[in-house]
TrEMBL record:
Keywords: ANK repeat, Repeat
Repeat as UniProt keyword: yes
ANK repeat locations: 661-693, 697-726, 731-759, 759-791
Name of the featured protein: NACHT domain-containing protein
Organism: Favolaschia claudopus
Amino acid sequence: MSLIQVRGIMDRLAKKLDRPQGISKISNRLAWPLWGKEDIYEGLYAIERFKTVASTCMILGIWDFTQEMPQYLQRLSLDQMDHHERNATSTLEFAVAGNQERNQHSSERDRIIEWFSPLNFFPRQADVLRSREPGTGEWVLQDNLIKHWKSKAGKTVWCRGIPGAGKTVLASVIVEDLRTDLDYSDAGVAVIYLNHKESDSQLPDSLLAAIWRQLVFQKPYSSSMRELYDGHRERQTEPSLNEICAVLRLTISELSRIFIVVDALDEYPEDLRDVLIEHLVALGPTVNLMIFSRLDIYLDRTIPELGILEVLANEDDIRRYIDGQICKSPRLANNIKKSPSLRGEIERTIVSRSDGMFLLAKLHIESIVKQHTVKAIREALKNMPGDLKRAYDELWERINRQSEEDRNLARRVLAWILNAETLLLLSELVEALAIEPKSTELDPDNILDPNIITSVCAGLVVINEEDNLVRLVHYTAQDYLEEIQDEEFPDAQIEIARTCFTYLSFHKFGQGDDIDLQTTFNENAPLEYALLFGLIHARGDPEHRIISDILSLLSCLAPSTGESEIRWQRMASVHASLPRTRLGIAAYFGLLHVAQRLVDEDGFDIGALRGATTNGHTEMVRLLMKSQGYREHVEAQKASTARRFPLKTPSDDERTQSATHNITSLQRASLQGDEEAVYMLLESGVNINEETRPYGTALHAAAACGHLPVVCILLAHGANVNAEVPPYGAPLRVASLGGHTDIVLLLLENGAQINARAQDGSALAAALSRGRKEVAQLLIDHGANVNDTGTPGWSVLARAAENKNCTTAENHVCSNI
């Protein structure tokens, strides 16, 4: 090192150790704990090395050239030590402040990420990797198609295979490889694991947000995200699909390469599948997409230039898995020790009987490890099934061969997992199993050991260590159990409903003035599930058999006493706009048989209709609207509207003003299908039958757009079902024009005049002009006039023939002309 280099180092250190005044002084103090000390240490170390060299030079007699250097270094060292002593306290203070600021920022970051994407696939990825036998699945990384996909931007690969081929594990292997191998500062990797039991929470917007969450892992996110969060936080709303897509695209634009892996697309609802794929494909040319699924879906028609990898269980992987299970099972290892040739027999038989399914190999080895003797193992190998159906049959037989107590427990566990409306947490399941009929509190001594649960279920049930969710071993197990459900679990829905009812009736849930909901849910694992789904399990056939239990629970929930009010508040905390009456709660959950009884006992209430429309229970809506109480309610509403808004003949000026009148708030809410806003506006006293152009009345607007719940609300509040608004005519005609069969039927049931004509003819003519065959058939069945001329010069038949839409109604029309 030269003297010039040393002098440069010392000058830089002198500047760092200088003590400026004012704001710059604070800035330097902050810089020290954050980054400056490493730089200073490096400089001091360089100087120490030069001092050693200088000492050597002096020994060699090169004193004159370096005589000032030691004194200079000594002064610098003393100044530096003095500087540290004077600033030790202030440095510590600012270091603590810096840590607090970083912690605060981290907490805020966590809140924003959790708000934007509650769906988190990191635990699922970790759990799948943990269940994988080391070394298995790595063959996929050597496949030329996968290598090409990894190296070229904008490529899509479809990895398709039979059930149980090990696709989920392969997806996790590829994701782990990408996250390990790539420069994470310049690339992003995301995975989504789809599950048919989680489809309600795995909507396209949630999945896209979950991708964003993984792409910003340990990376900064844009300032626009904070602005989005602040805006929604004040309104207490969630981000829209468009906002999520915009945020995701912005994040993608800041990275050079993006890899997205989608597992089990075949388990995703078909009506949402195309929406998800469309958004994923539209993310841009830097995105590489990989999709895992069964063979029975069609992607090559929707994604151009699609690479296809056929997935089968790899024989080497199966052998590795078998070896791993032998090592984990002392019983099996001892039997192999007695008969060393047994290992080879096990491997050959399981590999040959697996038929390309890793799942089948897994089920086979699990049946082998439970055998007690070498003879029993060889007998099991001889009778080993060669297909998945037979494998499940054998597992079911093993369950039934257990003691009565174990067999009954296995059936209860499987009934819960099979019929649960969502995946269950282990804590939810074990406490649900501990609830005893007619009990008033949970006995902690009745809680089962999780190992007993998995043992009695013969390998059909697994517990994820990462997220403590209880699952069936594979979705094919769900299919198998559903096939035998009617025979083996005929009362499952009733037992689950009764268990939930018993739990909700516990004394402690009717006590306490200050309800801390989060603490209550945390301390009572099954409570949230029971509140959300208990009455849903009772819907349909179970209603007839347990109606007394349902009515008892409804009486506990409908606020009448302080205890009922507390129970209702807990239920309302997880159900938006929950009605407060027995009939209202029954209608909200679609309990049709119960509502038939309550509408006579308790009488009609508008909250019940609101609950039914909110959740789309069409049959419940019809039941309520056919009741005498509903008709009396509507007449009262009409009378009230007539008093507040008396009819009068508009003047010419008023007609002109109406033609250009701005859309009313009620019409806008009806057009948008905003049920809550419609209710609020009607309760505030707006004129339900006010007309404006071009939308007519609010009922016209809702009927034209197909918003059945809003139509129900408007009718219940006295909307004029036969209001004529030129040139559209009555609401029945605009609903027929739009092809909204359910609304057409509802209007007819509420007094709509079927043959009322507008400028372009009747509702039937309107339906046929747009090819609305089902609506036309419905109108004809209800007595529509097939001789209506429609547009001047056009008959109904001519209109149908012109549009080639007479296949449904032609015979009816022809026979009546």
